[in-house]
Amino acid sequence: MNPIETHTQGSRMGGGWSFKTIVLGLLPLILLAAIVGFIAKVGTGIEGEAAAPIEQLNVERIKMNTDGFVVTVLNSGPEALTIAQTIVDDSFWNASYEPGPTLDRFSRGTITIPYPWVYGDPHQIKFITTKGLIFIGEVAVAAPTPEPDSERFSQYALIGFYVGIIPVGLGLLWYPFMRRFSVRGTQAVLAFTVGLLVFLVVDTFEEGFELAAKSPGIFQGSGLVWFGALLSLLFLLAVDQMNERRMDRGLREGRSVSYKLATGIGLHNFGEGLAIGAAFAAGEAALGTFLIIGFTLHNITEGVGIAAPLLKDKPTLKTFVFLALIAGGPAILGTWTGGFLFNDTLAALFFGIGAGAILQVILVISRMIWKESIEHRMASVSWSNFMGLTLGIALMYVTAMLVKF
Predict the structure, then answer these.
(1) Hey, which residues does 111 pair with through a beta bridge?
(2) Helical spans, DSSP H, in 310-343
(3) For residue range 136-190, what is the model confidence (pLDDT) as tens digits?
């Protein structure tokens, strides 16, 4: 083809960012803005009052101190609302509002209620708007809300260390024992890892959807879980493809998979820390202690899964330390977040991201099993692999009973 013709065709296809091109690109947006503005100003022409008032007030957090309750609320409805009265345990009660009793859409407010709450008792707080709608916040077990101080900070860090780093580290100690396995045994261990991850990804999705149901409807919590999972999965797949050449130049695949696995499990353990921190923040110390014991027993199997891809490698002690920190360390961050800053919407999104990361690791390990099966002329779905997968799911299922309530 003639170079001049090629250049001319490329110019036609590429376009070029001329003033005319920019105007053509912006024209639909300008017309859309004009139409929306016209409808907003003139209206649709259909008159009539709404059959019922449309208001939505979400009680995000209830803190308790020696003076009473401090409640954080969010107006997630389509219009401004005004809180007319506050009722605590079926009694009208005085309250102060910051920035005021009227909240614009998407505005947050802080309501301070000087109420003599009783330690260990349940309490119910109702807010009545000027349009007569009632919104309720409940305290299951009254207890002082922990304040972020150095002592509480270190206590939560220690809890996260018990729940995350210690059990993962103990699971990694099985590495020398697993190194003695044959090729078939190694594949069974990898299948066992896939079983662990299958349970974790289902559990992570369930936790995310539970939190999504509690978050304000305007944020579409269920969608955040799905979108977080999809985008994190695709992002990690893209990163994995970018690293393929690097792996060919000497980066061991097993070690790379172990780090990905530790990252995905770390995101899941962040969620476990959220549950523990939220339990202590709500004054449910007995539940928090129960969760610590249960998650510690539950998470020791995760270390086994992280060590499985390294069976053909020669990792150093530093590698194992890093893996334990990556997989277990987020439990500390989760405990801090759950205890001091818990938010249902963000937690749902984070669980979705964690589920996507775990799904990507399942794909990578499954591909490892398949490639090794072809190399050694073995069945990829052998009885030993099937039993390993089943054992992984069953073990996680049984240990999860310790933390379900």
Answers:
(1) 71, 97
(2) 317-328, 330-340
(3) 998 887 878 777 778 888 888 888 898 889 888 888 888 888 888 887 887 888 8
The Cα 394–Cα 389 span in angstroms is 9
Amino acid identity at 60 = E
Minimal CA–CA distance to 260: which of 298, 202, 295, 310?
A: 310
Confidence of residue 203 (pLDDT cuts 50, 70, 90): confident
* Residue 107: burial class (beta carbons within 10 Å; 0-12, 13-18, 19+): middle
Describe the crossing of helices 253-281 and 317-328 by its angle, rounded to 10 degrees: 40
The vertex-341 CA angle with 333 and 84, nearest 5°, equals: 170
| pLDDT score of 14 | 52
- Rounded average pLDDT over 116-122: 88
Beta bridge partners, 96, equal 112
Residue appearing with tokens 């409808």: 39
pLDDT at 250: 41
Task: For residue 382, give the nearest of 188, 115, 113, 182 by alpha carbon.
Answer: 188
Q: Within 13 Å and on the Cβ side, how many CA atoms surround 77? A: 19
Give CA separation, 312 vs 179, 216, 363, in Å: 8, 48, 19
Judge residue 68's burial from the number of C-beta atoms within 10 Å of its C-beta, 0-12 exposed, 13-18 middle, 19 or more buried: middle
Looking at residue 106, the DSSP 8-state letter turns out to be T
Cα–Cα distance, 134 to 78 (Å, whole number): 16
Check if the beta carbon of residue 328 is closer than 8 Å to that of residue 169: yes
Q: Are 75 and 57 in contact (CB under 8 A)?
A: yes
| Closest by Cα among 49, 51, 57, 47 to 78 | 57
Of 48-62, 63-77, 247-261, 385-399, least confident by mean pLDDT is: 247-261
DSSP per position, 212-241: HHHS-GGG-HHHHHHHHHHHHHHHHHHHHH
Q: Is the pTM of this model over 0.90?
A: no
